[in-house]
Amino acid sequence: MILRIRYRSGEDEVSERVISNPEVEPPNMIHAHCHLRGEKRSFSLSRIEKAVDFVSGKIIEDVWQYFGLPSRKPLPATMPTFPERPNPMPTEKAQQQRKAEKLALFRPFRFLVIAEVRRTKLWALFDNRCYRCKSPEALELDHHIPQYLGGRLVPGNIVVLCSRCNLSKSESHPRSFYSHEQLAKLDCLLKAEVQLFDFRFDVARWHHHPREYLLSLGVSDADAEHALRDQDHPLFVGWNAELERSK
Fold first, then answer.
1. Of the candidates 2, 43, 162, 170, which lies 20 to 30 Å from 10 by C-alpha distance?
2. Are 57 and 73 in contact (CB under 8 A)?
3. CB-count exposure of residue 247 (10 Å: 0-12, 13-18, 19+)
4. pTM of the model as a whole
5. In what order do the strands lie in the sheet with 29-34?
6. CA-CA distances (angstroms) from residue 133 to 137, 138, 157, 213?
7. Cα 69 to Cα 56: distance, rounded to the nearest angstrom
């Protein structure tokens, strides 16, 4: 038995591999000879994103079922939950945490040119205006469940507010700041937000054809050109340089 698989490693890198003579180890592992590494390796079935029979070329729709294990479908992204118990912390520590969370929020997108597309979509999700007063001025990202109550700046807990409304909300719980109708509408937006940030950078596609990959993610042709060619532009990534770093 020989298979060609697309595999996502524990470091979140995707590679194409050919494996043969797989041995199943329930509940979720196989051991097979990896032709890329030239040795026997272990593979988690949950990390196999695509599998094809090397001889027939037939796509294997469900690798779990293929290896005689109970079929598993990936769980959808879920809303975050936080304790409501107050968690006071020094102002400096709170500021450091907020700064770290902002950096972590867009880190999965790997490059600024991709992160900017998702940032734009996040603003658009809230119609590019404050959710509370509808002002388009001085917009900020607010912790829906405040930091004081354990909230983090993560997908599903971010609301676009103007600086005035953000200051007014402060450490208030959303239930005491928004109307019942506003909370109901906001719940739908937060769920859409979780899906918006459900992203994994595809290293294999980036290595194969970076421009095509950027365009498929919604990057404009002009920004893709800046990212790949214009070394003086803030969005510049550089295909060759990034390839060497990834290796």
1. 2
2. no
3. exposed
4. 0.67
5. 39-44, 29-34, 14-25, 2-8, 48-53
6. 10, 12, 19, 38
7. 22
